[in-house]
Amino acid sequence: MRAALLQLTSGDDPQDNLTQVLGMVRQAVDQGARLVLTPEVTNCLSPDGDHQRAVLRSESDDPTLPALQRAAADAGIWLLIGSLALKTDDADGRFANRSFLIAPDGRIAARYDKIHMFDVQVSESETYRESKRFRPGDRAVVAQTDFATLGLTICYDIRFPHLYRMLAQAGAQILTVPAAFSPVTGAAHWEPLLRARAIETGCFILAPAQTGTHPTRHGTPRRTHGHSMVVAPWGEVLLDAGTKPGVYTVDLDFAQVADARARVPSLNHDRQFGGPDV
Ligand SMILES: O=C(O)CNC(=O)[C@H](CS)NC(=O)CCC(=O)C(=O)O
C-alpha cells in the first residue's frame, strides 16, 4: 500500500494553501498513492489571531474541506487532512484544530479534534499558548479503511503515550501524527518520540509535517521543523523528508504490524498495579 506524505510550508492565506495542496495531491496520485496525508493546519498557519478570525470559516462553510473531498473522490483515494483550523460556535471564540479522514467516495469518514494544547515556553524568546486560540477536543478516534484501522492524533499529542496505547489497543494499525513542530523541540525530540510510539504500539506512524518559514504579512513568521516521517512497527525510520516541501511516498507492508507484535507482545502485557504512595 503506497502512502504519500505532503510536506508543506502553509502560509496564512487559505486559498493559496489550497491551490498548493491540490497540485500536490495530484502528484501523489500520479505516483500511485492510495492514502495521502497533509500536516497540521493545512489551511492556515498564522502567528496572528485577528488575521485568523478574519480568514477562517466554520466547518460548514470552509472552502478547503469540500475542495479536498472532491479531490479525494476524483482520484478514489483516502485522504487524511492533518488538520484544518476552523471557527467553532464556542462562546469564547476559540477555533478547532480538527483532522478529517476522507474516504475514496469523498465522504468524511472521521473527525478528530486535537486533545493536548501546546502551552509551552520552548526558549527565552519563544512561547506558544495554543489553548488561547484553540479549543481542545476530548475524544480519542479510530477509523476503519479498506486497508487498515487508523488512530488519529495531532502534533503535541505525541508527548502523551497513553493516548497512543489506547488507540492501538482499540485496533489501530496506523497512527497519524500530522504536525507543525517547533524547530527547537523538533531537533531534540521529534524522531525519538515518533519511534518510541511506533515501538510501544507495534503500529506504523505516519507523520506529515509543516516545514520552513511560513509566509505572513501579519507579524513575525513562524518556523517549523519539517522532517515528515514514517516509522515501521519495529521502529525503523522508513522515511525522513528533510526540510524541503514536497510529496514523499512510502510503501507499507501491514504484515509488519502482526510480526512486530508477535516478537514483542507488550501491547497485551498491561497489568493492574497500585502505588506509588505519596
Ligand atoms: O498554532 C497553529 O497555527 C498550529 N498549531 C501548532 O503549530 C501547534 C500548536 S502551537 N504546534 C504544536 O503542537 C507543536 C508541538 C511541539 O513542537 C512539541 O511538542 O515540541
TrEMBL record:
Keywords: Hydrolase. CDD domains: nit. The keyword Metal-binding does not apply. The keyword Hydrolase applies. InterPro entries: C-N_Hydrolase, C-N_Hydrolase_sf, Nit1/2_C-N_Hydrolase, UPF0012_CS. Pfam families: CN_hydrolase (PF00795). One of its GO terms (molecular function) is hydrolase activity. Residues 1-254 form the CN hydrolase domain. Belongs to the carbon-nitrogen hydrolase superfamily. NIT1/NIT2 family. This is Carbon-nitrogen hydrolase family protein. The lineage of its organism: Bacteria, Pseudomonadati, Pseudomonadota, Alphaproteobacteria, Rhodobacterales.
